[in-house]
Design a protein that fits this description.
Strand order of the largest sheet: 12-11-7-10-9-8-15
Distance between the termini: 61 Å
Helix content: 25-40%
Number of domains: 2
Largest sheet: 7 strands, mixed
CATH architecture of the largest domain: 2-Layer Sandwich
Number of strands: 15
Order of helices and strands: EHEHEHEHEHEHEHHEEEEEEEHHHEH
Radius of gyration: 20 Å
Oligomer: single chain
Structural class: alpha/beta
Strand content: 15-25%
């Protein structure tokens, strides 16, 4: 079997998920190297997963590791810089959400990959999650008539790494972290229909002492085909991960929950496991997921990209899709700041999307 050589950039939570996905579900891929800014973390990750090479120098990895694909699992503010370097070295790129911090970065990244003739895939796993894909196929088969509303929500009590809470590294809070999933999934369900307006409200309700970023948001996106979409996202929801969608049609309705139905229901007075170190997610009732990696579609998206590289096919979710998601995020921050509906296209020049909300609050 032909194997494509992968370098994982990053050594945190999402990098672990990507490695597990390759190792368990994608025999066409071979992870040959890992990079982390902290060399000790890169080495520990490599030893944990028996990866032959580790680097704390991104230029050395790109030039020496022999990889054909770089899988970018780094903080948001590094996405553009690393993409430019990988494209210049003719490496194909799959990149975790969001595509970039700014629209200018997104446009430059897309242009760089096109100029270099390399593939760029925006890693939106909800477009590959088995339950959500079953929902999409039911809709395509006419099971619920014409769609008039979509809802998607992802909620938990906060991210795994400190950088998410730093607006200078993340560009924003829960909307940048998880709202991007909902927006990408709406476009996926609607065959990339054009979004025409956005209305949003957001606040920092739980992590006030830790971040100026929003930790709870509701975003309403109206599309040109008349469908209304509602994204609900939170870092303030206790009791573990919640990820579900609702599809409303003229002939029926479909609900899908990525985790319920594939969980062990438990009650713990004191909590258990790693989660005790960071939050209260295992105190009281919890729904322990035994196959999170598979349920969320990570193996499926990575396997798809390997196939695209090996067979010279266009990825189903592209850099342009990631750019479209980012533009809607801009509009959502602006709407939350002004209290008004924002029409698209919308491309103000800002350093970070969240500035469109924070600056408005300053008056």
């Amino acid at each position: 079997m032909q194997q494509t050589k992968i370098a994982i950039l990053g050594a945190g939570f999402i990098a672990d998920i990507h490695f597990e996905s390759y190792h368990r579900f994608v025999p066409e891929a071979e992870v040959v190297a890992v990079y982390a800014r902290d060399g000790s973390k890169a080495r520990a990750f490599a030893e944990k997963h028996n990866i032959p090479q580790w680097y704390d120098d991104i230029d050395a990895l790109i030039g020496q590791s022999g990889c054909e694909i770089v899988d970018i699992c780094l903080p948001n503010f590094l996405h553009a810089e690393v993409t430019f370097k990988a494209a210049a070295a003719r490496k194909h790129i799959i990149i975790e959400k969001p595509l970039a911090v700014t629209l200018e970065e997104a446009d430059a990244m897309i242009a760089a990959c096109k100029s270099a003739g390399v593939k760029l895939m925006y890693a939106e796993e909800l477009c590959f999650a088995p339950k959500y894909e079953r929902v999409r196929h039911m809709v395509k088969e006419g099971a619920i008539g014409d769609i008039y509303m979509l809802k998607q929500g992802e909620k938990h009590s906060g991210p795994h790494s400190d950088w998410f809470y730093d607006k200078n590294k993340s560009g924003g809070g829960v909307l940048m972290d998880m709202g991007c999933h909902a927006i990408a999934w709406f476009r996926w369900m609607l065959n990339n229909a054009k979004a025409v307006s956005v209305y949003a409200t957001m606040a920092t309700v739980y992590h006030k002492g830790r971040t100026v970023c929003e930790d709870n948001s509701v975003v309403i996106v109206e599309f040109e085909n008349g469908v209304t979409c509602v994204a609900e996202n939170s870092w303030a929801k206790h009791g573990g991960m919640d990820d579900r969608c609702e599809v409303y049609g003229t002939g029926g309705v479909v609900y899908a929950d990525l985790f319920m139905g594939n969980a062990a229901v438990a009650y713990s007075k004191n909590g258990y496991g790693y989660a005790m170190e960071k939050a209260d997610t295992t105190v009281g009732w919890s729904f322990t997921i035994f196959e999170e990696v598979f349920n969320q579609g990570y193996p499926h998206e990575l396997k798809h990209f390997i196939e695209c590289v090996q067979q010279n096919k266009e990825p189903l979710v592209t850099g342009e899709d990631g750019r479209a998601v980012l533009e809607i995020i801009y509009a959502a921050y602006a709407s939350a700041g002004t209290g008004k509906k924002i029409n698209l296209p919308f491309h103000p020049k800002v350093n970070r999307p969240i500035d469109l909300w924070l600056d408005a609050q300053k008056g």
